Amino acid sequence: MKNQRMLASRVRSALFGLAGLSLIGSAHATTFEDYEQALEAYNAKRYEESFVHLKNSLQKDPDNLTAKILMGRLLLQNGYVRAAELEFQEAIDMGADLNLVAEPLGTAWLFMNRFRDILDFQEYKRLGSKQKSSWLQIRATACTKLDDDVCAEQAYQDMLAMPYNKDNALNGLAAIAMRAGDTDTAEDFLAQSREIDDNSAILWRLTGQLSYRQGDVDTAIKDFKRALEINSDDPIALRNLVNIYIARDDFESARAYVDEIMSRTPDDPLAILLNNWLMTQEQTVTSNSTEIQKLSNTLSELSPDVVESQPLLIYISGLTAYFNGNIEKAVGDFERYLGKVPDDLQAIKLLAKAYISTQRPKLALTLLEKKQSLLMQDLNAALLLGDLLIDQNKSFRADSLVRALEEEFPNTLQLQLFKIKLMTVRGMEEQALALLDKNYPAQQLNPTFLFTYASMKMRFGMYDDAHNAVDALIDIFPDKADVYNLKATLFIQQEEFAKARNLLDKALSINESSFSARFNLAALDAKTGNLPASLELLDALLAQVPRHVPSQLLKAQNLLRLKDIDNAVLIYKDVLTLHPNNQEARVKLVQVAAAKGDMSGALYQLDKLLKEDFDNPAYLLQKADILIGMDRADEAEQAIVLARDVIQTNSKYLERYGNILIKLGRPDEALAAFTTAREISPYDNDLALHTAKLQIAMGKVSDAANTIASRIEKNQNNADFWYVAGLLAESRNSFDKAAQAYGRSLTIAPVYAQPLLAAYKMAERGNNPEGFVSIARKLMKEQPEYLLPANLLAQYFYNAGEFEKSIPVYIELAKLPNVLNKPKVLNRLAEMSAQTNTIQASQWIKEAFQLNASDPEILDTYGWVLANEGKYAESLEMLRRAFSRQATNPKLRFHLGYTLVKMGREAEAQEHLELAANSELEYNGKTLAVRLLNGI
Question: Cβ–Cβ contacts within 10 Å for residue 248, how many?
Fold first, then answer.
């Protein structure tokens, strides 16, 4: 028994990985106080916390049976079945009441497939009536697993002789009767069960199975749905519904229920098979299907001649390759199969999807267009063609497809949603939104529609409508983490980060392991500048799913912001190793290479993209951008000439083309491109505002005013509109109105950097600095996580020489754990205090130096502080070290000159002071530098 106890203890520690953890105050708690805290945490589903308390309790008193039994239940609850069984067996050996552990022990044995142990367990006969009834149900289940219906029937009959669980016994007997084909007896048992409790999920699931056997499929569907209304976690009812929908070719409904099964029982073999089969109808592919792998292994043993002679084997070969991620092989197999069976719609769809996944959308489009008449029988397949037409800028042909589909599938919501997508692509945003609004009253309980509605409204900044749709989703799914995560995404779009964080906390309180919510939290931390927290979350996500590409890409982006370029590049290359066609990673490598001045490397990566899609306007325009950065304007011209002909019907590309023309110094042509783009997309609000910005920059103030005049009412809640209004007011020297507009923009989008920077620059030019100060202080109060306002305000006061105002702001920044560059903040504080509070300045600069001993600005300030302390020799050493790293800094030269003067070395000091005094740059101390120079 001692060895068993040691084993149980080791298993507990190994499973939870918490052997060394204890909660605050636990050392002073008694074993039962620990147990009470554990029980409270267990009931609140805070299982790790409960485990820690239980471990502490059992460490203090290994014989605490209450703690041991709860430990067993906790382990069983979290799926550690073997460990739970050890705890229960040990508790029994220690004299625990069998009534407390028999049922969970039996449940553990069921999970472990130890059915014979259940049948051999005769101690159940001394259990109380309620516990005995529960055990008999476990016993009946074990009998069924052993295909012994006689044994199971006896257990259920024994249950009927007891006052508990009679309905469960009747349901069990009905199931046995159905297996025997005796539907009349089954119906009788179910009727008796219904009289006891007509709100039982098992009852309605069995009733559904009976209805289906009797040929009443519609009633069966209703019965299964009734079962799921009572218990949404019933995987058998879910599977039954999936089978019915598959039989009806209703794959959309089947997919919804398969997803439910996979989310609840991810290891369910039947669910995995159903999931793999359904994936032949969809784009999603899995490489985890054991059955598919077995099939693949079998095919590999057949000779190529055998496979080639039978089209079905070719199809299966392609299918297994598709599921196993070998898309290139799948392409070859499906092409050969369609050569023999040209009109197999399923194979056509799979080949098209394989083309798409290998970045060959043009081949997919050609294939589907050739088979368009066949596709018209299948709305999903036809809409796949429609998506390709949209993606390849063939919106007019997509429109023709929609009109044809409306005849075959009138009033279909799926088609309506596609029409809305097409309208947005064609610049018909208002009509698309009107169609959404028209359908909204009738679809307020349709989750698919509500999600689309919320997404579209969010895209166009109609946040109130989007919130209404998301709130409706929350009403439908109040206990689903995903809906709160969606609402958080909406608030992130609105840059209301505090609200977003609260909702993500809510989502994680419902499902602490929610991958999407944790990812959004990492993204939120990144947006608010808390990069260490973001990276910590991403590391945890990547430990869970090492190849999760969005997490890899966000981590790389964070590293770029932290100037850790090399590690970011490694991640991008890692992504491309497994996903060579990942455009984002390769485009980032283009940008990184360009930023590092490696223009050849940038072009190399870009040419990789163009190799696969030589006339892709996005890549051509990006190549032009790179070439402009290399001062190769003539080659950039060639790139945009290649792109120009294929972008004339795409407003977004025309806008980007215009931006390139601006860089080439051709603003008039850029404005013409914007004008053409606006003719294509007259309702594109962002394009209009971008055009107004260019007009303001060109001095066409009246034109800019006309551009935005008709948009005032529709843009009251648009942050970018008020930013443009601020620029317009500033161009008219209406600095008060400009500050008001910038402030309004930031009220709508508090972390929108452009209006804040515009207000800052306006203040730096001496125009209405009070307006900027007011804006910055308001943002600091309302968005304490957003550090840019505090940084800019502190910098403004610093540049203005108002150190008494700058220092308090920098002090607050230095206290924040997520400040981006704490050494720089401390350095600035030390510099401003060097002449007024050398003791404090010394503390700040020493801390900055410990954090970064090689930064020339920190070395400079350290030397300046030492000089003000009268430690001139030490000062000179630091200043020399700084000078070796940043010799052109006039402020450093002033500090050197000052120190050398104090040391009596005026000749050398004069050289530094002349450069410092005659510098065109303004810096703190320049006046003193001039005075010192004149005094030599």
Answer: 12
Tell me: the pLDDT tens digits for 818-869?
888 899 999 999 999 999 999 999 999 999 999 999 898 999 999 999 999 9
| 228 vs 201: CA distance, rounded Å | 7
d(CA 405, CA 383): 9
Give the list of residues 6+ apart from residue 730 with CB closer than 8 angstroms, or none.
Answer: 738, 758, 762, 767
Task: Scan for tokens 């199971």, then name that residue.
Answer: 152
How far is CA 505 from each of CA 469, 783, 785, rounded to the nearest angstrom? 21, 18, 16
- DSSP notation for 690-722: HHHHHHHHTT-HHHHHHHHHTTTGGGTT-HHHH
* 12 Cβ neighbours under 8 A, 6+ residues apart: 51, 55, 71, 75, 83, 87
455, burial (CB in 10 Å: exposed 0-12, middle 13-18, buried 19+): middle
Fold exhibited by the domain 716-820: 1.25.40
Query: What gap in Å lies between CA 524 and CA 533, rounded to an integer?
Result: 10
Query: Which region among 306-315, 363-372, 428-437, 605-614 has the lowest average model confidence (pLDDT)?
Result: 306-315
The CA distance from 474 to 466, in Å, is 12
Joined together, the tokens standing for residue 356 give: 């798409």
DSSP label at 126?
A: G
Q: 495 with 479: CB under 8 angstroms?
A: no
Question: Is domain 823-936 classified as CATH 1.10.3720.10?
Answer: no
Output the pTM of the full model: 0.43
Q: Say what the pLDDT of residue 9 is.
A: 54
Give the orientation angle of helix 361-370 with respect to helix 345-357, to 10 degrees: 160
The CA distance from 813 to 470, in Å, is 36
Token pair of 525, please?
Answer: 């931390």
* Residue 217 or 841, more confident: 841
Cα dihedral 793→795→800→802 (10° resolution): 70
Residue 156 to residues 121, 128, 183, 187, 205: CA-CA distances in angstroms?
A: 17, 17, 18, 17, 18
Rg (CA), the chain: 35
Task: Tell me the two tokens of residue 307.
Answer: 């496979």
Q: Which residue has the tokens 């600069």?
A: 845
Single-letter amino acid code for the residue at 265: T
Q: ∠ CA(336), CA(341), CA(346), 5° rounding?
A: 90
142 Cβ contact list (under 8 Å, min separation 6): 109, 110, 115, 116, 118, 119
| Proportion of the chain above pLDDT 90, given as a percent | 43
**What residue ranges of the chain are covered by domains with CATH 1.25.40.10?**
716-820, 823-936
| CA 140 – CA 503 distance, rounded (Å) | 45
The span from the CA of 75 to the CA of 83, in Å, is 7
Our separate counts of H helices and E strands in the chain read 56, 0
CA dihedral 187, 189, 190, 193 (to 10 degrees): 160
The CATH code of domain 411-478 reads 1.25.40
- For residue 51, which amino acid is it? F
- C-alpha distances out from residue 489 to 112, 462, 512, 524, 751, Å: 42, 14, 17, 9, 15
* 712/729 Cα distance (integer angstroms): 14
